Every structure is written in structure tokens, then in C-alpha cells.
Amino acid sequence: MEKLIRITPRDNVAVAIEPLFKGDVVLLEGEQYTLVSDLPAGHKMALQDLKEGDKVIKYGYPIGYATKPVSRGEHVHSFNVKTLLSEEAEYHYSEETAKVYIDEAAERAMSWKDKIPAIRAYERKNGDIGIRNELWIIPTVGCVNRIGERLVEWARENLGLEDGVHVWTHPFGCSQLGGDHENTRKILANLVHHPNAGGVLVLSLGCENNTPESFRELVGEVDESRVKFMTCQKVEDELEEGKRLLSEIAAEMKKDERVSVSMSRLRVGFKCGGSDGFSGITANPLVGRFCDELTAMGGTAILTEVPEMFGAEQILMDRAADREVFNEVVSLINNFKHYFTSHGQVVYENPSPGNKAGGITTLEDKSLGCVQKGGRSVVTGVAEYGERITRPGLNLLSGPGNDIVSTTVQSAAGAHLILFTTGRGTPLGSPVPTVKIATNNELAKNKKNWIDFNAGRLLSEDAAEVTNDLLQYIVKVASGDIRTKNEINGYAEISIFKDGVVL
């Protein structure tokens, strides 16, 4: 097996599959190269001499420019490359280009005709499905977090619910203004409606800005046997009343049974965190292949982390279903850039130290790898932060790159589960099953208690076989046959986006 990989024929850098050292002689595509510097695994080597100012090409696109001359065989990284990004960019819509992707998607859809896999899920009264039947406690304000935690402890010991009991604690719901206040309310209201929750207790204090009355109105119509509301200031003993309400909800939930439904009804979020130089070569493209198959079945895919689209956004725009969706994508990108600049920040202050240690050099490098999770699927919709996803196909959802914030907004948007790729490793879990996909064999081996699936297999195995294995694994997770590592470990939490003033 070759020790370097060139992702596209246009690239003038290649990525080391294993650590290489100065003086090593390696073959790539029949050509011989001599390393003029050490090269850690996941890092880039120049395939030709580069002059100062020359563009560095990876994934077939520029990831920056050389800040000084770089020799063939030399390590290419942040010490000799700088981003090309700026706050301003022009975007172009091409109906001809979009048609290529639309025709591809139609062909994939035909390949799944009468062959879409089934999963076993819970049918909800509103026509949705859930892949878990959990009991959730949702505080409307941070003041009642500890009450919720005590009720969860009691419920886990006494109610006998197989799929679990959770409280989604957070510090908000009061002392917030404007957009922050509404973001909190929207995220919490959407969690109340999440189909993975067979029952919900909404826990309020009573004097918070997010008043019980206004929140109840925002939540809207619910199954009152499954969703109950309690205001702690209005009951004599909030723990005893909470136990009574949870017992009533649990009694209804125990009537639920899984039934066979089409996988086309599944909504899956895609996220990467702790990325490395292999993310755009193994795990993200693997998720992208799954995305293509899921959307071909008629399923729904959700891609967020807008700042990690910067530098690769035109790729997504090229796949817009029509001009209207294209314009929505442009607004999504520009609005998030404005968020950065309104706070006096540049749009390219990324990647993180861990990303750089793993071989990612610039934001373009990170973004071009990140958007691989969307495969070649047509972008059918764009949603604002806090909105629920309603259109099948690949949807772009406004949200930051932060792991917990972005997995929370995907969950609130309706994702039944999240595929989370990582090269550095993370124990994080969202409100929904969070499948951790390792980019490399070493991580998969060393952190078996975190990692659910090893995409490092792509370096030595057939891509179609690995993709099929992932698809079958997701069928089992969705059907409740397999618990993800975050579920087994009990790692699950939420975080809500905050921009403005706290009173």
C-alpha cells in the first residue's frame, strides 16, 4: 500500500497515511519522492516545487497560498501556508452544473426503487417516528435544573423504562433579551416535540422570562397524556408532584411497541469534531456516501457548522435544487460571516490547535474536508437556527461549529440520530444517539469506549463494502438493536447558542 494519497489529480500536495521521515523515499502513482522533512500522519507533502504566492491545491481546490518557497518533498503546513479567505466573496448559480447533480440523484433514487431497507421504530400520533422511546425532562429555565436531575435519578430507579430518562439542563430561560431569548425558547419547544421522546415533563419555575404560559403557547398542540407541564412555584412539593406526573407519562409510554417502517422516514444529522488530516479522506467521504444513499431513499440529511463551510460554500451552492435554494444558501453563508464581523472577528480564525496537530492547515483545508459529509447530494432546503427540518433531501441548517451547540440544534431540528466523525476523539453525546466514526485505525483501536465505527478501513478496504457496513450499522442503531457508545456511557447534553446581553 502506498504511504501517501493524492485526493484528486489536480492536487499539488499529498497526505501521509503513516508517519514519514526526512530522507524516506516513497512512491506515489508510480513516481518517486524523497522526503526533505519529517511528515506526521495526516499531514501534507508538496508534490512539486512551489514559489511564494503559489496556491496550494487539495481536494482539487485552493486551501491557501505558499508564504515562502516550498520544495518538492517538503512538509506543507501552517508555517509555510496562509489562508486565501476574506470576509467578502462572490457566488454564482449555474443551472447547468446543478442539473448534473440532480440527474445523479435521480439515478441513485431509481437504484433504491422497491429496495429501501426497513427499520423498527415507534409510530407517533402526529405521523412521525421515533427511534427511541425515552422520557425527557425539559427545564424552561436554569433555576430548576437540580430539581430535574433529582427527578431523573428517581425515575431511572423506579419507572422501569428501557430506553432511558434524561433531563436537558441549561443555564438560560431568564435574563436574556431579543434573539437569545427566542433561540432558547425555540430549541426547548422543538425538543418537547422530538419523536425520540415518548413522553416529556416540562419543568418551569414560575417567574422566569420564559414564562410557563408563553412557553406553553409556543409549544402548541401536544398529546396531553404524554406531555405534561409543572410550575414549581405553584405546587406544594415539586418533587412529589414531579414523580406523580412522570409516573403517569411512563404508564402511557409502556404501551408503545416498535413497528416496521421505511428507512426513508429517517432524519440524520452530520457533524465532525476533533478533525484531522484523514477526516476529508476517510470518515467524511464515508458519511457523504451514506448521505447520498439516504437521500436517494427519500430520507433527510442535515448538515450544519456554517463557519466550516467557509471556503467550500460554492461546492454546496453548485448543488442547490434551484435558484431559490441557491439564494438561501448564499444568505446562510453571508449572515454567518456578518455574525463574525459584527463582533470584530475575522471569518477564518479556524482551525483549532487540535485540528492543526492532526494535519489541517487552514479553514479552507478544514471546510473542504467538512463538506464531504454532504456527498454529492442535492441541497433541497436551508433552515434557520431553531427551525425544524421539513423537506426530505440534504438540508443546510444554520449553526456554529461548536460540537455541543451544533448537535443540539440538529437534534432540535428533528434529527433522529447524528453521525459524528472525529480524528482526535471525543466522548460527546447529543440528545439523540450519536454515532462516533473514527477517521483512522489508531483512534478506533485506542478509544473503543468512544468509537462506534472505524472509517479508517477505507484506506485498505473496498469503499462500497465499508459504506454498506455503515448503512447496516445505522439500521441496527435506528431499530434499537445497538446502543451507541454515548448512550452506553450516559454522555448526553445540550448547549444553546448565545450571542447577546445577559441581564
What do these coordinates show?
- The chain is of the alpha/beta class.
- It folds into three domains: 4-82, Archaeosine Trna-guanine Transglycosylase, Chain: A, domain 4; 134-253, Sugar-phosphate isomerase, RpiB/LacA/LacB (Ribose 5-phosphate Isomerase B, Chain: A); 265-489.
- The chain has 14 helices and 23 strands.
- It has helices at residues 95-111, 145-158, 178-192, 212-219, 238-253, 283-297, 313-317, 323-342, 353-357, 363-370, 403-412, 441-446, 463-478, 485-489, and strands at residues 4-5, 13-16, 25-28, 31-34, 44-46, 55-58, 61-66, 75-76, 81-82, 118-123, 129-130, 134-139, 165-167, 197-204, 227-231, 259-262, 267-272, 300-303, 379-383, 393-397, 417-422, 434-438, 453-454.
- It has a seven-stranded parallel β-sheet, sandwiched between helices. Strands 1-2-5-8 form a four-stranded antiparallel β-sheet, with no helix packed on it.
- α6 (283-297) links the parallel β17 (267-272) and β18.
- The protein is globular.
- The relative contact order is 0.14.
- The mean pLDDT is 96.
Key structural traits:
32% helix, 3 domains, 23 strands, 19% strand, alpha/beta, 503 residues, Ribose 5-phosphate Isomerase B, Chain: A, 14 helices
Largest sheet: 7 strands, parallel
Q: N-to-C terminal Cα separation, in Å? A: 60 Å
Strand order of the largest sheet: 19-20-18-17-21-22-23
Helix/strand/pairing category: alpha/beta
Gross geometry: globular
Measured on Cα atoms, how large is the radius of gyration? Answer: 24 Å
Number of helices: 14
Residue windows where pLDDT falls under 50 for at least 5 positions: none
Task: Please estimate the helix content.
Answer: 25-40%
